[in-house]
Amino acid sequence: MPGSDLQERGERSDEQVSGAKVIAQALKEQDVRYLFGVVGIPVTEIAVAAQELGLRYIGMRNEQAACYAASTIGYLTGRPGVCLVVSGPGLIHALGGMANANMNCWYKECCLPPPVSMADTSAVCQAASVIRSARQPLLIVGKGAAYARAEESIRKLVEQCKLPFLPTPMGKGVVPDNHPNCVGAARSRALQHADVIVLFGARLNWILHFGLPPRYQPDVKFIQVDICAEELGNNVKPAVTLLGDINAVTKQLLEQLTKPLWQYPPESKWWKTLREKMKSNEALSQELASKKSLPMNYYTVFYHVQEQLPQDCFVVSEGANTMDIGRTVLQNYLPRHRLDAGTFGTMGVGLGFAIAAALVAKDRNPGQRVICVEGDSAFGFSGMEVETICRYNLPIVILVVNNNGIYQGFDADTWKEMLEFQDATVRAPPMCLLPNSHYEQVMTAFGGKGYFVQTPEELQKSLKQALADTTKPCLINILIEPQSTRKAQDFHWLTRSNM
Amino acid sequence: MPGSDLQERGERSDEQVSGAKVIAQALKEQDVRYLFGVVGIPVTEIAVAAQELGLRYIGMRNEQAACYAASTIGYLTGRPGVCLVVSGPGLIHALGGMANANMNCWYKECCLPPPVSMADTSAVCQAASVIRSARQPLLIVGKGAAYARAEESIRKLVEQCKLPFLPTPMGKGVVPDNHPNCVGAARSRALQHADVIVLFGARLNWILHFGLPPRYQPDVKFIQVDICAEELGNNVKPAVTLLGDINAVTKQLLEQLTKPLWQYPPESKWWKTLREKMKSNEALSQELASKKSLPMNYYTVFYHVQEQLPQDCFVVSEGANTMDIGRTVLQNYLPRHRLDAGTFGTMGVGLGFAIAAALVAKDRNPGQRVICVEGDSAFGFSGMEVETICRYNLPIVILVVNNNGIYQGFDADTWKEMLEFQDATVRAPPMCLLPNSHYEQVMTAFGGKGYFVQTPEELQKSLKQALADTTKPCLINILIEPQSTRKAQDFHWLTRSNM
Amino acid sequence: MPGSDLQERGERSDEQVSGAKVIAQALKEQDVRYLFGVVGIPVTEIAVAAQELGLRYIGMRNEQAACYAASTIGYLTGRPGVCLVVSGPGLIHALGGMANANMNCWYKECCLPPPVSMADTSAVCQAASVIRSARQPLLIVGKGAAYARAEESIRKLVEQCKLPFLPTPMGKGVVPDNHPNCVGAARSRALQHADVIVLFGARLNWILHFGLPPRYQPDVKFIQVDICAEELGNNVKPAVTLLGDINAVTKQLLEQLTKPLWQYPPESKWWKTLREKMKSNEALSQELASKKSLPMNYYTVFYHVQEQLPQDCFVVSEGANTMDIGRTVLQNYLPRHRLDAGTFGTMGVGLGFAIAAALVAKDRNPGQRVICVEGDSAFGFSGMEVETICRYNLPIVILVVNNNGIYQGFDADTWKEMLEFQDATVRAPPMCLLPNSHYEQVMTAFGGKGYFVQTPEELQKSLKQALADTTKPCLINILIEPQSTRKAQDFHWLTRSNM
Amino acid sequence: MPGSDLQERGERSDEQVSGAKVIAQALKEQDVRYLFGVVGIPVTEIAVAAQELGLRYIGMRNEQAACYAASTIGYLTGRPGVCLVVSGPGLIHALGGMANANMNCWYKECCLPPPVSMADTSAVCQAASVIRSARQPLLIVGKGAAYARAEESIRKLVEQCKLPFLPTPMGKGVVPDNHPNCVGAARSRALQHADVIVLFGARLNWILHFGLPPRYQPDVKFIQVDICAEELGNNVKPAVTLLGDINAVTKQLLEQLTKPLWQYPPESKWWKTLREKMKSNEALSQELASKKSLPMNYYTVFYHVQEQLPQDCFVVSEGANTMDIGRTVLQNYLPRHRLDAGTFGTMGVGLGFAIAAALVAKDRNPGQRVICVEGDSAFGFSGMEVETICRYNLPIVILVVNNNGIYQGFDADTWKEMLEFQDATVRAPPMCLLPNSHYEQVMTAFGGKGYFVQTPEELQKSLKQALADTTKPCLINILIEPQSTRKAQDFHWLTRSNM
User: Fold this and answer.
1) Which residue does chain A place closest to B426, by CA atoms?
2) Which of A45, A473, B363, B386 could form a disulfide linkage to A448, CB 3.0–4.6 angstroms apart?
3) D457 min Cα distance to partner chain C (Å)
4) Does D136 share its domain with D88?
């Protein structure tokens, strides 16, 4: 490391100190409250100076995670988070976080309370008229609506007009997931048959299948509500675009649709179809969840987690099936309380996000918890941040949903059998991780609580204890069926001849 | 695109498969033997195809470490290593590795056995004449000499001409550290008083204090031997530059200096000065090493490690004091058997380097071990790769030299006392990590062996066991004095008023 | 050039042809009407295919100018212009144009008719209230207002509320320069003493002295009307920000200020001060313009040009004094009819801009002219485009205001004297160009008309002829005082001893 | 920032002046002799300061050309040339030059006299043995040989070993083109049938058809002599690679082949084949050159130019056919006296190169001329630099070989006929330029001499006058057959229906 000589390390030059103070003071004036980073010769002084001014400095274990944490702060608090890194390798390690933040459209609007713009009045009229004439309408509530703090106005719109709505992954909670008008449990059906869809800060990217058939009607009419002109008209030709602050525009729309009040008939065929589909889907999930076979499947796990999930907790999630299936089962009741790997699908963000959310929770509402639902592979990207969690004693419960691999893995017996004649460096399939790893020991290593869980009963019990004990972070390592959710298939790894 | 839909994941299109085979075949033709990475939708097939052709695929836990591993392979084997990442976040995570490799000048020469160039004959004569007239000569053996496999010729030069030499961090082992002509133990003295210095693939960067006074004589004559013209004449104006393959040029020089044989008088005042300085420095280290107070200091730890260090092991190291002090005590006897954080000072490289070295060791010489000496902060950057080490059962012994912080930390009592009235998020100094963390449990979590060590006796015993048991990886967590090597200073953290 | 072999040139592969057709078709569908470029192996086919679909391809002489031309089309027509370049050097030559377009905020909004957003109603009320309470109000009309086609609403606001306004360089003509409320002739005074300034798409960059004292009152209240949130609050802390489409927001403001009607008193002291300052400034200009000494000064030249300037012409301009002084004298009566070097101050843009404007003029309004006012140095950057102008017979009159240099030059006698004893490569001052260059011959070389003009009478006559003859492009080379507008100073070039 | 305020321009701050002096002094210490640029606010002072120290500043008309000029100086003089540009647009305009210099491998080696490296002795032996066993050997002399100033050693090798050689475009003149061993006139044959090819600083890029069949024997043995390891083994697998300074390596090779002397039999079948092919090709050229039909063809033009070309002149060239055909007819007798558009094929480099060459010529050898052979399209990229040439009165003769287009154009009658019913903006083919343009007037506009030439007699006469009159620059505009060298083809432009 440049500057590694002991003598040099010992000397804190006056210039560095005063420069650090100037920077810290500037951050304070911008109302920055949290800094994340890994200190090194030239930035330690800045961290110290920031602390002296009352800002929080959270020392992380890798700049990657530090940057993911910092980027979350803006979304949660409306004020910028700062990532403090040394030049050279530190900066490069942080690039992942910066790219991720950018893809999720965080950053730049934080610096001043942004002015509010409204949509063109005539376009609002036109949108209202399209909605009124819809036979199978659908609202989609996206991350942009959460970011714009539009929860009140959107909820009013949903309730007064009696419209079905669907949240995107990070739009969950803007209107509570258990709201009777939420049709998340009939997502595919709703998307596929809607004739008018209003997008509130939701982007037609891969998560929403780009807005294209066969996942949508070819002649579906999209109404886009967004703050960002460049997003309008991407992939599809919208019927109406409403450019402006999402909260302000929703209010405009609400006014148009409620004076005089227009309501979508709650006994329409469309509502009936959606309710039936939800019922049958929920029954299917319920059936999967109640399977008694061991190891557990994803649905069993998430069913039990949902049962005990505190209503006000933050839910952070990353992984493949873990994130996808978890999102359908775990409910959010508050806006901006779900954080997941997002548009960019970046693995390694979870613990950084959870740390940021826990800091915010701790300051706002002592007792509030962060539940961090990780796939086992995802956890590996930044698992060492568990030490950070323990050091700062953050109110985080990590669930590692462990299938021994990426997408899928092997059970311990198959693994052992596979290695009987040859070495893992020759023979281990690329998606396999070590079976039955004790990730919970990564938590106990730093004084937190850890559980190794193989049955529904153990899961219930460990969750109960973890949520009851507010003095320590906790990790519950949940073993599930390694080939879970995949159809039976030929087991080609063991049968390939020339390996 | 992150392909989160289950259906999409299930479909392995024919195009992907055949494209993957083409890539794998091309890698094989380039004589690539090892791939490192984290699989994801589009690259899993490549990993599988590579395995089918007999290449090794090593699945890592974060692209950062994967890239550090891949970059090491070129240095160790002369053949390129490959890092397999998904586009987007995977690529960005890998940037650190690529930047590091570049700063260390690895990569590009690997693709074909490079042609050999020699130095201009007249310049060689001139260099020989400068050496012959030197009163206080010094050879510096750098990483470039290791890379050029110049060990035989440089050793001959040292021995036949009876010249003192000094290795750079990664030049260690080109000539064994215990060679009587090695003046590593009098490094500062040797640099400061030499009148002629011959650099063999060593760069005058911060590690060598840029070649400038007061660390050097103002009129010191540098002779630079290097393959890279752009490196010649940086920072200093060399007396002679020898551009060419370092091995070939050393042979040219050797011929000039040995026909007829010229020898530097072994009883010169210069040799006497150096020998005396080495003796006094070694006595000082010895004194530090033999201190009985607990917690141990760095010298005590490395003294005991050196006692048991196998002569043929790879030594990988990263950290601040851990790397710097460790380098002076731990000896290398073979070229290209020391890997450290290098020119760029990147933290997080250690486990990736160790994994690569272990693969090479395993294939070449079963029984050979990799000793990975990590500072506790450094370990945190990629500690989850311990699972990788266990999964592939790699012959690695990790030593975490644990001072509870970055540069320095607190002991457990001080830490506790500090938090009595306020929270760690408010009060913890930026360089502190959690005291007495059980890093060894990160190893036991995955089935490896772990030791928590606080005394010289425990250290000796655990090292003995770790080196004797070749069936499992091992981590020895060595607690040292948290304020080790730092002068006593006011304890301003606890006394600052307004925090 | 890659692919320069005759055989290869002769072969137009089928793939290239069909690829070219696909690209041309896509451009047509985006409603692209004009392409500019320099053809080469891979792009000739695209140009041909575009022509076959009825698009215009204008072959330029350097990619630099082609890109400047293309970037103008978006501003003038609201549809994207396209620049067609070969890869490698062609692309690099075009970078200047791309950077310039970006600095001027052209490009990206062109692709779809953008949705319109309005300002927050409460912010509009607040802005109206600030304006109503202003004692010395000022409107500044910027390029953004021109781009947003807000001419009608801004004119109404100016007239109904009787407010003074000031155009920025490219805001000229949104409201005609000869409007009685235009206070351009008292620019410095107006900026310096206004207490409330409303910016309509005008940015507080160097052209507006960053909005800072001493050019402004320290407590001036800025109201910013802009489409771009990132521009709001730069350099100054605005009193109110109105984010939205500038035309829509102006209408909102107009409604607030006219129902009931509020008017700024036309007999206020502020109006009196401004009118007096305008009168005295105009008298000063008039005095300078009427000077009879030869060579002419800038004011004399522009005074005569203004006398004959057609009201509907485009005015394009670049240079230093030429652009700055010309802008104050030459009047614009129509929006989007002035193009100059803009925010970035790029030299070399003039002829490209003029060519684009001429194409638009020719299609919209045969008989409309483009007057391109160039400094002599500025003309040199892309003077060869005169061939392009002649080839397409574009209705352009170029005025080269020629002071034999950059900022200033020498007269012919001084030049000759200076070279009596030494060569120009040794002695010529960096800002001097060849005296009395016959730039008009660059026009006659390609069949256009050229005039070499040294007196007011010659200038009047040549302008009259140039504007009367609509069959040919024309260049009037106007010699002015080489040291014009500069105070007398020591003539150090001739007196320096050791050159 | 473009500093358009008059006041600001007037003030030369003391800091700027002293900073400028420091820069100028540093340039002088690096032995920089020539600066090229376009001045503006912050760099004028540097130009002035440089002049005061005796450096030459050449003010150009566009940064593009300035950068092309600066990059040439390194190649011609071995000392760096400097391009002085303002930040922002100036820098961007200069990028073309920088990219071009990089592709041609100029720049960086200039800063210090580079150390010389030699090839591995055993590789030299091996190369000599391959050459000795060759049945159809060929030497290719590239720009790298010129750059390395290897003319003497390569000429000795050619003559003592009696080997046939072929120069690349910028390798022309290392050994004179009229040397009896030069087989340039049988280029295709020589490449296609050689069994051993030695490349001296010549790269197997598109100019040499990448070294691949069918332009080469599939089993041809390449011996590569180059300073740059990365270039070795590109595209082909060479039989031997000799890495080192090209001049030093050629001497090593020469020693191997001449002690004892080995000679390739001058009466071999290979020599006979080559001589016959040269004779027949030269007859063909001669026949084309002697055609009496008007307009002239390329061969007629170059034949007459070659007749009068001074042996010591620099030849600069750019264009498509103009450069390709001109290169085969115009002879070079001195190394580093031909400059053309090079590897990158950049158009617009010619006048910048010519200006740089003229400065060098003027200083070294008064009376020496630069002949700049330009296609008409190529001339348009930087034609305004003619003013620069006239201002500094540089000894340049520009020949514009004018075919009214890019690759090809129309004659005046066809052009007129084409425009009878429709406008050029609709109808002009992309590759056509204005027919019969009087480019020579671009020269007379600035006081140089100009000729408009349509017949061989006019060409002869104008060349004679131009070369005799050393007091003024000159431009000869040579009209040639617009469809020259292209087979008859359907004239689809006039017959396309819907245009």
Assistant:
1) A56
2) A473
3) 23
4) no
| Spatial distance between the Cα atoms of B354 and B72, rounded to a whole number of angstroms | 9
Contact status of C497 with chain D (Cβ, < 8 Å):
no
Instruction: Summarize pLDDT for B262-317 with one digit per residue, the tens.
Output: 999 999 999 999 999 999 999 998 999 999 999 999 999 999 999 999 999 999 99
What's the confidence (pLDDT) of residue C8? Answer: 35
Chains touching D (3+ CB pairs < 8 Å): B, C
Are D95 and D362 contacting, i.e. CB atoms less than 8 angstroms apart?
A: no
Show contacts of C459-465: CB within 8 Å, 24+ apart. Answer: C459/C296, C459/C301, C459/C304, C459/C305, C460/C304, C460/C307, C460/C308, C463/C304, C463/C305, C463/C308, C464/C308
* D258 and D306 belong to one structural domain: no
> Is it the case that residue A100 has pLDDT exceeding 70?
no
DSSP result, D336-382: T-EEESTTTT-TT-HHHHHHHHHHHHHHH-TT--EEEEEEHHHHHHH
Mean pLDDT score, D67-85: 81
Dihedral of the alpha carbons of D64, D66, D68, D70, in degrees to the nearest 10: -150
Task: Determine contact: A237 vs chain B, CB below 8 A.
Answer: no
A323 and A383 part of one domain: yes
Q: What confidence tens digit (pLDDT) does each residue in B398-433 have? A: 999 999 998 889 999 999 999 998 889 888 888 899
Q: Supply A236's token pair.
A: 């599809």
What is the longest distance spanned by two Cα atoms in chain A?
Answer: 79
* Position D492 confidence tier, pLDDT thresholds 50, 70, 90: very low
- Tell me if D62 and C64 make a contact (CB, 8 A cut-off): yes
- Does D73 contact chain B (CB < 8 Å)? no
**Mean predicted lDDT score pLDDT of chain C:** 86
Q: What is the CATH number of the domain that holds A132?
A: 3.40.50.1220
Whether C191 is in a domain gets the answer yes
C197, C323: one domain = no
* C2 within some domain: no
Residue B400 to chain A, least CA–CA distance (Å)? 14
Q: What is the DSSP string of A305-318?
A: HHHH--TT-EEEEE
- Residue C18: Cβ within 10 Å count: 12
Q: Which of A79-88, A122-131, C293-302 comes out lowest in average pLDDT?
A: A79-88
From chain B, pick out residues whose CB is under 8 angstroms from the CB of A394: 425
- Which ipTM did the prediction report? 0.89
B318 shares its domain with B205: no
**Are residue A127 and residue A100 in the same domain, yes or no?**
no
pLDDT digits (tens, 9 = 90+) for B182-232: 999 999 999 999 999 999 999 888 889 889 999 999 999 999 999 887 777
Q: Which of C387, C390, C404 is most worth mutating to test chain D (most D CB atoms within 10 A of its CB)?
A: C387
Is residue B269 located within the same domain as residue B353?
no
Q: Which residues of chain D have a CB within 8 Å of the CB of B241? A: 115
The answer to pTM > 0.90 is no
| Residue B69 belongs to domain with CATH number | 3.40.50.970
> What's the pLDDT band for D12 if we cut at 50, 70, 90?
very low
Q: Find the closest chain C residue to A233 by CA distance.
A: C112
Q: Assign D15 a pLDDT band (cuts: 50, 70, 90).
A: low
Is D494 a member of any domain? Answer: no
The whole domain housing A94 covers 19-104
* Claim to verify: residue A140 and residue A234 sit in the same structural domain: yes
Q: How many domains does chain D have?
A: 3
Model confidence at A93, pLDDT cuts 50, 70, 90, reads low
Of C77, C104, C131, the residue that ends a domain is C104
Distance from CA of B47 to the nearest CA of D (A): 28
Mean pLDDT of the region A148-177: 96
> Distance, in angstroms, between A28 CA and closest chain B CA?
15
CB contact under 8 A, C391 and D362: no
